[in-house]
Amino acid sequence: MNPIIKFVESSFREAKTGIPNFKAGDTVNVHVKIKEGNKERIQNFQGVVIQRKNTNTNGETFTVRKISSGIAVERIFPILSPSIDKIEVVRKGSVRRARLYYLRHKEGKGARIKENKKAESTSAQE
Amino acid sequence: MSGLIGKKIGMTRYFDNDGRSFGCTVVEVGPCVVTQLKTLEKDGYNAVQLGFGEKKEKNTSKALIGHFKKSGTTPKAKVAEFKDFSKSVNLGDILNVADIFSEGDFVDVIGTSKGRGFQGVVKRHGFSGVGGQTHGQHNRQRHPGSVGSCSFPARTFPGLRMAGRMGNQRVKVQNLQVLKLFPEKNLMLISGSLPGANNSFVIIEK
Question: Of B190, B7, B25, whose CA–CA distance to B112 is shortest?
Answer without folding.
Answer: B7
